[in-house]
Amino acid sequence: MEFHISFLDHKVTKSSPSPALCCVEAVPQDEQNSHITAFNSGDGSTNSDNESSSSKNVRDVHISMRLMEDFLDLAKENTDKDLETCGILGAFLENGTLYMTTLIIPKQESASNSCQATNEEEVFTILNERSLYPVGWIHTHPSQSCFMSSVDLHTQYSYQAMIPEAFAIVMAPNDTSRSCGLFRLTEPDGMNILRDCPEKGFHPHKEPDNGNLVYDHCSNVYKNANLRFEIFDLR
């Protein structure tokens, strides 16, 4: 059995979804004519304000305007318990741009400062069935500020080593200065440091000798009001 989902102006044929599919988010009618906008990091800055050398030579990525809001709704029960929640972002490539069309919430083990996906083969199955790239991941910091911990940096390295455009979204609902951030490891400095780091758990990373950052804001991710996405909650 097959069904069709329209992303932007494209009609994409997909195989029958697993029973874990909980919904397909549609864009509200009053947002249909909105144009593509630069991502606002939550502190008033946008992509152009945060132009990063780590994002200059990678392809653009479009995400739905509803992504962060809907993810926080799915994470609310954990957030209220001071537990992190994580999700994986799947995207398809067309005409040199990656369109994020799938949010997967895997089975996971959570604590107040960490979140570990389990049964990852279920995630790979969904991505493979839909020929999607694992273009990034999203997770909450329920009671911490909006930043990338050393554990987060190692997770980001595993994504970015596969897909250069891969990015991390950190949602910190209790951070009054910046509740949301999109980050990537700098290239080559941050990537080299994480590649050569044998440490596990929480630990400091040395700064690059040239004074550059280990990670920085993304400047290649845009919110697209006409982009819909599927949500798979596997928990």
Can you put this structure into words, describing what you see?
Keywords: Hydrolase, Metal-binding, Metalloprotease, Protease, Ubl conjugation pathway, Zinc. This is AMSH-like ubiquitin thioesterase 2 isoform X2. Residues 40-56 have a biased composition (Low complexity). Residues 61-191 form the MPN domain. Residues 35-59 are annotated as: Disordered. By secondary structure, this protein is α/β, with parallel strands linked by helices. The protein has a single domain (21-233), classed as Cytidine Deaminase, domain 2. 19% of the residues lie in helices and 33% in strands. The protein has helices at 67-80, 120-129, 150-162, 189-195, and strands at 2-7, 10-15, 21-25, 37-38, 61-64, 86-94, 97-105, 108-110, 115-117, 133-140, 167-171, 180-185, 215-217, 221-224, 229-233. The strands form 3 sheets. Strands 3, 4, 5, 6, 7, 10, 11, 12, 13, 14 and 15 form an 11-stranded mixed sheet that branches. Strand 1 (2-7) and strand 2 form a beta hairpin. The model is unreliable at 1-34 and 42-53 (pLDDT under 50).
